[in-house]
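Quick board copy: two proteins, each given as sequence then tokens.
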Amino acid sequence: MLVPVRKEHPVSAVLVRNLNEHTYHNDTTTLSASGAKILLGKRPPAPDSEALAFGRLVHTVILEPQNLDTYAVLNADEIGLTVKGEKSDNPKATKAWREAVFAAKRDGLTVIDPAELAHAQALADAIAAHPEAGRLLAAATEHELSAYAEHPSGARVRARFDLVIPGSLGDIKACRDADPKMFDRTVHALGYHISAANYIDIARANGLTVDRFDLICVEKEPTPGGEYRVAVMEIHKDAIEKGRELMADACARWLALGKCINLPSYGDGRHVVDLPPYVYNADFEDIQINLGEAS
């Protein structure tokens, strides 16, 4: 568990409000859960991936609507006209569109189209309309709160809380599948238990009373009936304890690497590769095989 450190200590536990997201994410002097996952072997998504960009938009709509002015909502069909002022078959290839995008980016804005904003707003509305998710949103006392503390290993760690709620922390996720019956695999695959442990321990180090970590998940695709399904899931204390162990491993590796973040190597020796266990099962013929994209 993390412990609050004395105020005069050079690496103090501290809460920082209104910290710019870019400044937070580009801090190389502290270790986040995202960095820890890389150190533990999870390759990070591309920083400019569509999934990450849309996730940031959803967070902005829900948690920081005052920052929507950092987006330029541009309609390609309306802007991307031909030199004759007529509708183009490929509006994003027109000079008018390229100039509009260039001007927006020059001003430091992120370009999105109206459909993307409407999609993000629909997800936000679904969360607000969900009884438990809406209750958590209404109960939150802080949004997008950055926090720092000292890990027992000596590593300085950081977290950015989506929602600080009396007794808990909330994290909003736009995902493909929010089925609680299957989400344990997602928690493991994406390391949400590592995030939960890091967030809870940093919050406690800063004097916050936190006993629970809630995922507020909304599916990105609607049901056939046009609804966006929402699920609120509390990460089990045993999973959080496992995440705490993994976070400690990552902190130790980070310090050993001189506070650099990198994927671990596959070792210098030889590996023997076998078939997965299910292949040897007598019922293997009934199993569908996904050959993937490897050649």
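And the next:
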Amino acid sequence: RKGLRKYFNVVKRISLTKKDVQPGTIMHFDQSPENYVFSISPMLYDLLPERSPLQGMHHRKCAVIGNSGILLDSGCGNEINKADFVFRCNFAPTQGYEKDVGTKTNFTTFNGSILQYRFKYLATEKERQKFLKFVQALGDAIFWMPVFTYHTNAIPVRILTDFFWENRNKTNVKLAWLGNALKWINGYWRVKHQFKAYRLTSGVFMYTVAQAICDEIHLYGFYPFHEDEEGQPIPYHYYEPKDVNQTYSKVHKMDAEHLVLRNLHTKGVLKLTTKKC
């Protein structure tokens, strides 16, 4: 944790707050050309938290859940639910997979592609109601969006801003909107772990956040291979059919990430679970 603080304050930078910007503030995107800009609208400003949702937070044991198919038939659900704080990635569903992934969610990431592929940009009333039910099921969990990483997030952010403003009295999630923080996070991994990637996975990003507020960190579902250790095929994501032919993203260096995490596991810095619980 002390090593992480040398590079940047995760707790402070996990979300823009009302103290950081004003309506009309022009934002740039961390990994897009300078000519792409985004203006903070009055509605978005109103949805920003007064302070970081992680401010003053400290937990003994945390679980960070990746979404690999290695979780299927793992029976890790109860163990995950016993953690004091549970991070999940990319709005991954738990219903129907409780035995393996648990039900507890305290923090979930959400990127723009999810809005497109799973909720059709909330373009119909049916999709809006479906999305609302998913959000309501999170209770008071932190709903975190990496807003200013790429300019392709601009349209999803505007759609989400409208949605959360419209439904501000119907949900209890704590909204968190990542500002320009990638250079600090990437710098930390490059210097501390000699790891350089164009884009860190959401799971490794959440592990980085967990380091700032957790004493003990357990990782589940971090497994970037098409077969388990017995040679049996597994799906890319646990919530997809096994016959889905999905390739691992070229923008992520998942094998290299996994090697770093395994080394940290060997050193006792974290616990990486890739077998049955």
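Board note added afterward: The chain has one domain: 2-14+54-273.
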